[in-house]
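Quick one before lunch.
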Amino acid sequence: MNTLTAAEADILADPAAHRILTGDRPTGRLHLGHYFGTLHNRVRLQHLGVETFVLIADYQVLTDRDIADDLAGHVEELMLDYLAVGIDPQRSTIFTHSAVPALNQLLLPFLSLVSVAELGRNPTVKDEIAHSRQSSVSGLMFTYPVHQAADILFCKADLVPVGQDQLPHLELTRTIARRFNDRYGKLFPEPAAMLSAAPLLLGTDGTKMSKSRGNAVALAADADATARLLRGAKTDGERHITYDPAHRPEVSSLVLLTALCEDRDPVAVAAEIGGEGAAALKKRATEAVNEYLAPIRARRAQYAQDRGYLRQVLREGNERAIAIAEKTLSEVRAAMNHLC
Ligand code: TRP
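Model of the tryptophan complex:
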């Protein structure tokens, strides 16, 4: 997890030359999959000294549902998770889509740069449509990757830490940047994806870890709920514990989770547990997770007592994002020859 990628070596050489943007949909509390998949890495990148933007993608919640339930509550939960894991509002700008009109206005010119056929080929959108609970596909579901390009390009981010499923959106963002630059003159960087080096954690039922499946340990869960969830985790019939992700995905995911929390090698962790079996593995995983998350949970509880501070962080982040988005929009309008 701590290997330095080419992009990171580049960042270290000149942190001020880069800008990072990432984001999450405010649909519920973040869990261990988010933490080891991306949050941990975001905090690390932030500490390398790169200017970082963290977007709470509130308009994007409406892609696969009609109504964004308890949106304000989910935004607060997300802010608590961010602050608890160490995203620092002094170094990172936390903001919401809906507060930044100039970002949203970029959607219009950007839509003119892509074809309907291109949008229809996006594999992540196709997959989300297949799993959507809605009876029809909204225009937003079809076009949100273009909106996501506006998320990234409004602040001219050049690095985007994301998971594998976001790569088609990144490719589209690069296409939009390139076409805009070709048509109207160079304005945007072509941002690169930064894939996390951490291997994937499975949910306790052996399927993809997900907020909505009840198979994930939330960062905010307490020690007892964590123990209960991990005690019920799916394993297999083989007593001897090994680390073999290809053949024993459920057991290996528990071993990996333990190893990540203990900052150890998963093969060594599996060897230590060995013949003690699945119950011992689950016990060790529970202890490791609870110990690792204890300071994060304590910070989260502290921030939760000060909603005024949360609002202030968001207000200041939104103000910073608004100023940058307005500058970019005026550059776009000048490039497109709009009368000012
Ligand atoms: N689509 C991302 C997700 O579902 C969230 C997101 C919105 C995002 N805008 C972004 C991620 C811009 C990276 C960059 O997780």
